[in-house]
Amino acid sequence: MYAKRMAYVVFYQGKRVLDKLRKMPVDIAYVSKKQHYAIVYGDAEQEANLKKQLKDVKGFKYFGPSHLFDEGLNF
Q1: What is the DSSP string of 8-62?
Q2: Which helix (H) or strand (E) holds 3?
Q3: Cα distances (Å, whole numbers) of residue 37 to 21, 29, 40, 43, 65
Q4: Annotated domain spans of the chain
Q5: What is the pLDDT of residue 74?
Q6: Is the separation of the CB atoms in 10 and 52 below 8 Å?
Q7: Is 63 helix (H, G, I), strand (E, B) or coil?
Q8: Per-block mean pLDDT, blocks of 10 residues, the chain (75 long)
Q9: Contact in structure between 30 and 38 (CB atoms under 8 Å)
Q10: Is the separation of the CB atoms in 10 and 40 below 8 Å?
């Protein structure tokens, strides 16, 4: 059974968002400490839940789908 996965971009300020991301059910692919963003992979059905959990974290700025994600690739 394949899970429908998506790549998301999370813009943040401070360390609290990264600590929260590590506890969430996502795979962190890349973290740019200089530009303050992270690329994470998660289930597409959980997008609303992930936004809801991050919304209350101090330093969180933006959560959205990555424009570089290609749905045609399936590993």
Answers
A1: EEEEESSSHHHHHHHHSS-EEEEEETTTTEEEEEEEGGGHHHHHHHHHTSTTEEE
A2: none
A3: 12, 11, 10, 19, 13
A4: 5-65
A5: 58
A6: no
A7: strand
A8: 82 93 94 96 92 92 87 64
A9: yes
A10: yes
CA pair distance 52, 54, nearest whole angstrom: 6
- Rounded Cα–Cα distance for residues 45 and 30 (Å): 22
Q: Per this entry, what is the length of the chain?
A: 75
Question: What is the DSSP-derived secondary structure letter of residue 72?
Answer: T
Considering the four listed CATH numbers 3.30.70.80, 3.30.160.270, 3.40.720.10, 3.30.460.10, the one that applies to the domain covering 5-65 is 3.30.70.80
Judge contact between 46 and 12, C-beta under 8 A.
no
